[in-house]
Specification:
Layout (H helix, E strand, L loop, with lengths): L2 E10 L2 E11 L4 E6 L5 H9 L6 E6 L2 E2 L5 H6 L2 E4 L11 H7 L10 H10 L1 H5 L10 H13 L5 E5 L7 H16 L3 E5 L3 H7 L2 E6 L2 E7 H6 L1 H9 L1
Parallel strand pairs: 3-8, 3-9, 6-7, 7-8
Antiparallel strand pairs: 1-2, 1-4, 4-5, 9-10
Helix pairs in contact: 3-6
This protein binds adenosine-5'-triphosphate and magnesium ion.
């Protein structure tokens, strides 16, 4: 198993946010993490990456516990994140933002990586010298995804990639996510749009106030009345 969470609790100060969650992502899988507002989706991704630490339970990468590992160590083991709200460096160019994604491979030849990103997102090649802060929302999402891919991840964590995009761009974005997945990268994707996310996912988990209340194959979840109930209940 590429990623396993075993009975993980995460706190902010005294407040317990994740109530003991267990989930897995296998190599090459696309797994979607669903749930209403404040259910703990972003906290789960942050716990995987190590931005916040699990208070109890285990986070395992390739079967090895990484609870004590910092973020750079986890990135060097194959994780990358496309964060909520993209978090680009607005005063840096597109190219510089992309380079940051490969910062742990400093000195390496990045030509191949740029080529891969530019093939997925030809627009970023056209805009390579433009300041990231002046890009449209859709273009910024492309930079955020491109930057994550520059580290050659095996597991890409994505936090609400459709947020703030027009319906046409959401469609385009999902096509690209599918393409990245088909190239062999596993993805753990947080999405508010359950139907859309499950239409491209292998499996899904549903969080409600820090607990996983439902999980299964994407096609089963899509057909499930429980999914609707879980959503309305959260
Ligand atoms: N840094 C923090 N300090 C204290 N509480 C936090 C912090 N970050 C998040 N929380 C709280 O943890 C809970 C879960 O937040 P989280 O961001 O994981 O939810 P989410 O499912 O991603 O929600 P959304 O759909 O709104 O993005 C929320 O109640 C939130 O207020
Ligand atoms: Mg969130």
């Amino acid at each position: 198993m590429l990623l396993s969470l075993e009975n993980v609790t995460t706190y902010y100060g005294q407040m317990r946010i994740l109530e003991g969650i267990s989930l897995q992502v296998d190599a090459g899988e696309l797994v979607s993490l669903l749930g209403g507002n404040a259910s703990g989706k972003s906290t789960t991704l942050k716990t995987v990456l190590g931005i916040v630490r699990a208070r109890s339970g285990r986070v395992l990468l390739d079967g090895e516990e990484v609870n004590g590992c910092d973020v750079p160590t986890r990135i060097s083991r194959g994780l990358a994140i496309v964060p909520e709200n993209r978090r680009l460096f607005g005063q840096m160019t597109v190219r510089e933002n992309l380079e940051l994604g490969a910062v742990l491979r400093r000195g390496a030849n990045l030509d191949e990586d740029f080529e891969r990103v530019h093939t997925l997102f030809p627009r970023l090649h056209e805009r390579r010298d433009q300041l990231a802060g002046t890009l449209s929302g859709g273009e910024q999402q492309m930079v955020a995804m491109g930057r994550a891919l520059m580290s050659r991840p095996r597991l890409l964590l994505m936090d609400e990639p459709s947020m703030g995009l027009s319906p046409a761009l959401v469609q385009q974005n999902f096509r690209i996510i599918k393409e990245v997945h088909q190239s062999g990268v596993a993805i753990l994707m947080v999405e508010q749009n359950a139907a859309m996310a499950l239409s491209i996912a292998d499996r899904g988990y549903v969080l409600s106030t820090g607990e996983i209340v439902l999980s299964g194959a994407a096609k089963d979840l899509l057909a499930s009345e429980d999914l609707k109930r879980a959503y309305l209940g959260s």
